[in-house]
Structure formats: C-alpha cells, structure tokens
Structure to design on (186 residues):
C-alpha cells in the first residue's frame, strides 16, 4: 500500500529555510538559492548554488543547524552545488587532461619489455636492467621524481611514466577479469 505524502512549507519550515539561507549568505554572499520539495527523504530542500572548490565547505556552515531542525522534526535539508558554468569548465579540463594523458601513454608502450632472457622475464625498462616493480616500489615510498631518477640514472621521466602506465594497464585488466568472473547480482 503506497501512502501519499504531502509536503507543506509550514511557517516553522519557512523560518528554518530563511535561517539556513542567511547562514550561507553570510559566508558566501554570491550564493543563489531555490527551494524544492522531495520525497527521498521527504522534506523541503534549500538548494544553494555557490562558486567554491569544495561544496562540503558550504555544507559545513549549516550542518549543525540542520541537525537541530531534524531533532525539532522540521523536515528541511540543504543541497549544495556549483554553478553550471564551473561544472562544465571542470569537465572540459578533465577531458583535456585525460586526452593529454592518453597521448603521453600512447607514446610509452615500447618503453617496457618482457623477455625471458632478461631478468627472468620480469618487465623491465627497455635498454636497462631496471625492473618495473622496483620503480613502482620506489614510487610507493616517495613521489620525489628527482630521487627516483637519481637512484636509477639510466631511466628517464618518460620511463617512470611508462612504468605507471604499465601498472595501470595490468590493474585495469585484472579488474575486468574479476568483473567477468563475478556472477551478476540477481
């Protein structure tokens, strides 16, 4: 039996929304707002759009009051989002970064070799006896690339990138094999 839920903005709920909006505006004067009703969970949502790097900072401004309102059984919630333009710009930058990484990785595959006659067939940086696993182990201890390059003077920064790309390829392949081996949930 599906019971119909009616959400009404009572005077107490309106006062709570106004207080939450004032708290946000005090810290983020450029914020814009909308009020929506939703059923998951049922309540009134103050939707704040704020141009910040981390939307959790905005939520941090109001979280204590939201808890107070929940205790008082006033069904108000806050959702925070970034402006559409910022989200699109971040997405475009992400796409550009992924494209740059793909171009770099496309130039790296021939830098790692596996030959049974070299280092018992373990993958190594081409033209050296430097095992990929040693470069990765070094990266696990430090991200100071100068230190890695000093420790292995026979390799280059592109060789280090190739080691990372090689590891990423192995992990991705293992994940795909694991997904294929795992029966689908029913």
């Amino acid at each position: 039996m599906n019971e119909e839920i009616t959400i009404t903005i009572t005077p107490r709920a309106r006062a709570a929304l106004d207080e939450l909006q004032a708290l946000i505006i005090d810290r983020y004067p450029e914020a814009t707002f909308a009020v929506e009703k939703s059923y998951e969970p049922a309540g009134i949502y103050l939707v704040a759009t704020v141009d910040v790097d981390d939307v959790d900072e905005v939520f941090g401004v109001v979280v204590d009051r939201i808890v107070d309102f929940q205790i008082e059984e006033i069904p108000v919630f806050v959702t925070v989002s970034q402006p559409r333009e910022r989200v699109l710009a971040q997405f475009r930058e992400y796409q550009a970064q992924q494209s740059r990484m793909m171009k770099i990785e496309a130039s790296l595959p021939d830098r790692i070799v596996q030959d049974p006659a070299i280092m018992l067939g373990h993958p190594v940086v081409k033209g050296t006896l430097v095992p990929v696993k040693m470069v990765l182990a070094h990266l696990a201890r430090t991200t100071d690339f100068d230190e890695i390059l000093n420790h292995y003077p026979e390799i280059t920064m592109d060789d280090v990138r190739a080691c990372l790309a090689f590891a990423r390829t192995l992990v991705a392949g293992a994940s795909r094999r694991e997904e294929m081996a795992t029966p689908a949930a029913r």
In short: The domain at 97-175 is CATH 1.10.10.10 (Arc Repressor Mutant, subunit A). The chain has six helices and five strands. The first helix runs from residue 11 to 27.
